[in-house]
Every structure is written in structure tokens, then in C-alpha cells.
Write a structure and sequence with these properties.
Elements (H helix, E strand, L loop, with lengths): L5 H17 L1 H9 L1 E3 L2 H4 L7 E4 L2 E5 H9 L1 E4 L4 E3 L1 E5 L6 E6 L2 H8 L3 E3 L7
Antiparallel strand pairs: 1-3, 2-3, 4-5, 4-8, 6-7
Length: 122
């Protein structure tokens, strides 16, 4: 998995939030759409965020974005993408995206934060 890239993440968050402001229904549909994929994608070291739907892997836009920007790993083994989507309470409207608050997630799950790094070749 890639190390989170703050500059890239900030840029992506800015672009996505502009798009959400300009066309919220379109962006909601893009974020909610998931496409079936092969298990190889779920097992790829880039750590694409693939969801299982009835045992079958699916991936969406946010899963691809988070594979590009890098991830945050907690001591309990959970991995979070560096971009988080925020919805209304009923989940029917995408409000905005933001950089993931890794410290808040760690407090919620009672875990320590480890920024995932790539091993360097010597």
C-alpha cells in the first residue's frame, strides 16, 4: 500500500468538493456505483478498497481514489483510505469529501494509528 500523499489528497479533495457543489446528484451516483471485479483486484498490494456483495467483490470510485492516495492502518488491522465521503444521516445525499481524520478513527476503534509505508529496496 502507498504512503498517504497529503498534497495529492488535498488536491483530490478540493476537486471532488467542487464537483459535488456543481452536480451533487451526479457525484452521489458516481460514489454509490460499484462494479463487479475479479478477486485479484481485492488482493492487490495497492489495497484497492473492494467490498463484498453477496460474496462477490465490487469496487467504486472512492476505492480507486484511496488506492491512489494511500492508506492509514490501525493497530487492530483495519485499513482506512485517506479520503472520506460524508453523507446525510439517511445516506441519500453526498455532502462532501475530506481527508480522513486518522486520530478520530483510532479513538473510535481504540487502536493506534500506523501510517502504511512501502518497504524500500536496498
Amino acid at each position: 500500500m502507498k504512503v498517504p500523499n497529503d498534497e495529492l489528497t488535498d488536491h483530490i479533495v478540493e476537486i471532488l468538493n467542487k464537483a459535488i457543489e456543481m452536480s451533487p446528484k451526479c457525484m452521489y451516483k458516481l460514489f454509490e456505483n460499484r462494479v463487479g471485479c475479479r478477486r485479484a483486484l481485492a488482493n492487490d498490494p495497492a489495497n484497492f478498497q473492494v467490498h463484498l456483495n453477496g460474496g462477490f467483490p465490487e469496487i467504486g470510485l472512492l476505492g480507486i481514489i484511496n488506492a491512489i492516495t494511500g492508506g492509514i492502518e490501525l493497530s487492530n488491522g483495519a485499513v482506512w483510505g485517506s479520503v472520506t465521503a460524508h453523507y446525510t444521516g439517511d445516506g441519500k445525499e453526498l455532502l462532501r469529501v475530506s481527508k480522513t481524520d486518522s486520530e478520530a478513527i483510532a479513538r473510535t476503534y481504540g487502536a493506534d494509528v500506523f501510517v502504511v509505508t512501502r518497504e524500500t529496496e536496498e
